[in-house]
Amino acid sequence: MRYRLMFGVGLAVGYILGSRAGRERYEQLKGMARRVSDSPAVQEAAGLVGAQVSKVTEVARTKVSVVARNKLPFLQPHNGTGPNEHDETGTGWPKEKDEKAVTPH
């Protein structure tokens, strides 16, 4: 409850200060933000960060894919059935060599 109250107070203070600053100050801040975002240094940094994020995302996706295939048998390409065959349990889990599929009655 305390956090909600503080959030509400913050919104109220921000609204009051923002309304006092007026449209002119808003336009100044907007222009300054545009100049910063259009600067070559910021554009270069954003490009480098984007490339790093893309690289890390691809590595993570690959690792998750490998782990999932190793841990979840139904994601493996050959789970004991042929390419057009389905196991009798309908679960996707391979049958043990000694067990027969359990069929519901």
UniProtKB/TrEMBL annotation:
<feature type="region of interest" description="Disordered">
    <location>
        <begin position="74"/>
        <end position="105"/>
    </location>
</feature>
<protein>
    <recommendedName>
        <fullName>YtxH domain-containing protein</fullName>
    </recommendedName>
</protein>
<feature type="compositionally biased region" description="Basic and acidic residues">
    <location>
        <begin position="84"/>
        <end position="105"/>
    </location>
</feature>
